């Protein structure tokens, strides 16, 4: 039987999702757990595959992998509990024998969280509408031999608490395409470029490739298929790891703010001391 699993992961612990020799990858860890559980002996014979690759440091909430196994019940029951804490499941589905998670995806959605708020969210959202439709993204992606034309279904920029977020949905994406789009929007938000500049880039009028925004803010949010996934909650181990990481981030944020404030206070005291020492 062939199964598809929807998985999430923290990308900062991996050298990307795609298998590479002698480094930790998401595909490598998932395949190793499947082998350990006896779901298959050879990933190639099981036609083990992901819907696409994510770069080093990029996270996912809706990545999809598929494989063929003679032990489907064991796969559904055991896989969530055997995965490492920074990979987790959210759903599963029985699929046809020739199912390809990459070729049969109908759309992919990414969210990018800007590390620093670029500025004018409404202006960025207006600029993002230029991405809609079919365009040549040569100047908004890493150079490759692939066809640079992509069709974007939806794009928006909005505020989520303290963060500015860019969300985009397309049939497929080029290498670094979302992060380059985010860089372009940040330039508009800061006032470095006008919103119409995005259209000029898409028409090939730019003089250079734009740099990709840092990977840590990017999440592969969802991949759409013409069938539903049955919910498959993360294991308690993964849930606790997510809660612990969120708690650690809150603590680090608070400590960083405290250190910054205390450093400024001490700097102020030193400045006063210098002034006092200069008095006759």
TrEMBL record:
<feature type="domain" description="Pseudouridine synthase I TruA alpha/beta">
    <location>
        <begin position="127"/>
        <end position="226"/>
    </location>
</feature>
<keyword id="KW-0413">Isomerase</keyword>
<dbReference type="InterPro" id="IPR020103">
    <property type="entry name" value="PsdUridine_synth_cat_dom_sf"/>
</dbReference>
<comment type="similarity">
    <text>Belongs to the tRNA pseudouridine synthase TruA family.</text>
</comment>
<feature type="binding site">
    <location>
        <position position="110"/>
    </location>
    <ligand>
        <name>substrate</name>
    </ligand>
</feature>
<dbReference type="Pfam" id="PF01416">
    <property type="entry name" value="PseudoU_synth_1"/>
</dbReference>
<dbReference type="InterPro" id="IPR020097">
    <property type="entry name" value="PsdUridine_synth_TruA_a/b_dom"/>
</dbReference>
<dbReference type="InterPro" id="IPR001406">
    <property type="entry name" value="PsdUridine_synth_TruA"/>
</dbReference>
<feature type="active site" description="Nucleophile">
    <location>
        <position position="55"/>
    </location>
</feature>
<dbReference type="InterPro" id="IPR020095">
    <property type="entry name" value="PsdUridine_synth_TruA_C"/>
</dbReference>
<keyword id="KW-0819">tRNA processing</keyword>
<dbReference type="GO" id="GO:0003723">
    <property type="term" value="F:RNA binding"/>
</dbReference>
<dbReference type="GO" id="GO:0031119">
    <property type="term" value="P:tRNA pseudouridine synthesis"/>
</dbReference>
<protein>
    <recommendedName>
        <fullName>tRNA pseudouridine synthase A</fullName>
        <ecNumber>5.4.99.12</ecNumber>
    </recommendedName>
</protein>
<dbReference type="GO" id="GO:0160147">
    <property type="term" value="F:tRNA pseudouridine(38-40) synthase activity"/>
</dbReference>
<comment type="function">
    <text>Formation of pseudouridine at positions 38, 39 and 40 in the anticodon stem and loop of transfer RNAs.</text>
</comment>
<dbReference type="InterPro" id="IPR020094">
    <property type="entry name" value="TruA/RsuA/RluB/E/F_N"/>
</dbReference>
């Amino acid at each position: 039987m062939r199964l598809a699993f929807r998985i999430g992961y923290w990308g900062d612990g991996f050298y990307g999702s795609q298998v590479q020799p002698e480094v930790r990858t998401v595909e490598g860890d998932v395949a190793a757990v499947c082998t350990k559980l006896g779901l298959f002996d050879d990933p190639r014979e099981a036609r083990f595959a992901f819907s696409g690759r994510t770069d080093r440091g990029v996270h996912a909430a809706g990545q999809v992998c598929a494989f063929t196994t003679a032990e489907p019940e064991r796969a559904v029951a055991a896989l969530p509990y055997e995965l490492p804490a920074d990979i987790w499941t959210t759903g599963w589905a029985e699929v046809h024998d020739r199912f390809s998670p990459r070729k049969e995806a109908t759309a992919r959605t990414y969210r990018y969280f800007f590390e620093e708020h670029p500025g004018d969210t409404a202006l960025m959202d207006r600029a993002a509408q230029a991405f809609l439709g079919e365009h040549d993204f040569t100047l908004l992606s890493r150079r490759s031999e692939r066809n640079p034309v992509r069709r974007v279904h939806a794009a928006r920029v909005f505020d989520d608490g303290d963060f500015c977020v860019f969300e985009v949905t397309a049939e497929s994406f080029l290498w670094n395409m979302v992060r380059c789009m985010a860089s372009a929007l940040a330039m508009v938000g800061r006032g470095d470029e006008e919103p119409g500049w995005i259209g000029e880039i898409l028409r090939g009028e730019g003089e250079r490739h734009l740099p990709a925004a840092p990977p840590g803010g990017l999440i592969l949010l969802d991949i759409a298929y013409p069938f539903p996934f049955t919910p498959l909650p993360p294991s308690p181990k993964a849930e606790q790891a997510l809660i612990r990481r969120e708690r650690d981030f809150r603590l680090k944020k608070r400590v960083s703010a405290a250190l910054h404030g205390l450093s400024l206070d001490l700097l102020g005291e030193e400045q006063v001391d210098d002034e006092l020492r200069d008095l006759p």
